[in-house]
Amino acid sequence: MKKKISLLLVCFVVLLSLCSCRNPGITSENVSETVSENETFSMNLSYEATSSSTFSETTTSSESKTSQVSTVPSEPASSTQPSTEATEKEEEYITCTLQIDCSTIINNIGSMNESKCEFVPSDGKILAEKKFRVKKGNTAFDLLKTACLENVCADNCRFCAKNGIHLDYSYTPAYENYYIRGIHQIYEKDCGSRSGWMYCVNGTFPNFGSSSYVLKEGDKVCFVYTCDLGEDVA
How far apart are CA 180 and CA 199, in angstroms? Predict the structure, then answer.
């Protein structure tokens, strides 16, 4: 019996040896290498997983930054402050009225130069009273020039159609003043030797030229034609 068992053990050992010879790949070294390869593969998977996680974190970070940029509230539009410049400009101007009247000629039409009669409006009003905005510091003469440039006579005659109301004046250096010679083609002495242009402000006739009178807010200026050195218009 013991001999049979010994024989079986010997056979088993022989069989194991034969199996080892036929399958040399199954060795402790090969098994170790396989384990190492599996570990490397496992590490690669771990690295890829880590890289993927890093990429995911980077993407999330970028998305977070993008989100932060898009959610940054825009600066509120600056509220419109009351403009002091507009107020200052308003303060630089004043309002005055002007009228140009030659109605005295109607009562003295017999003395009028016949070639000038057509320039006399039917009611004697070359320019009816009108308001003007002028700069502070302007004079009555400045107001007259502006009015003549920007307007036509009350009759809207053909003489005013192109260039506005005609105005002729001269400068006198000795008095540093401008002298009104003619308005709407009506000149001094056209209606007698004592005729000519005068001006008044608020019903008063200043004793100096119109270019020396500095306008004030609300002034009413009137250039009138006199046929008797002012006696018929005072």
Answer: 10
CA dist., res. 170 & res. 98, Å (int): 21
Res 102 pLDDT > 50: yes
Residue 221: CB atoms within 10 Å: 24
The per-residue pLDDT for range 22-34, each reduced to its tens digit, is: 444 444 444 344 4
Q: b vs e for 92-113, b when ≥16 Cβ sit within 10 Å of the residue's Cβ?
A: eebebebbbbbbbbeebeeebe
- Dihedral sign computed on CA atoms, order 103, 151, 165, 93: positive
Specify whether the CB–CB gap between 141 and 211 falls below 8 A.
yes
Is the pTM for the entire model greater than 0.85?
no
Cα distances (Å, whole numbers) of residue 66 to 58, 73, 87, 99: 12, 13, 46, 71
Overall average pLDDT of the 197-213 stretch: 96
What is the rounded distance in angstroms from the CA atom of residue 77 to the CA atom of residue 5? 104
User: Sheet of 125-135: strands edge to edge?
Assistant: 125-135, 93-101, 220-226, 196-201
Mean pLDDT taken over the chain = 77
Domain 86-226 has CATH 2.40.30.40: no
CB atoms within 10 A of CB 220: 14
CB 220 within 8 A of CB 201: yes
Which helix (H) or strand (E) segment holds residue 134: the answer is strand 125-135
pLDDT at 233: 94
pLDDT confidence bin for 73, thresholds 50/70/90: very low
**Residue 6 CB: number of other CB atoms within 10 A?**
10
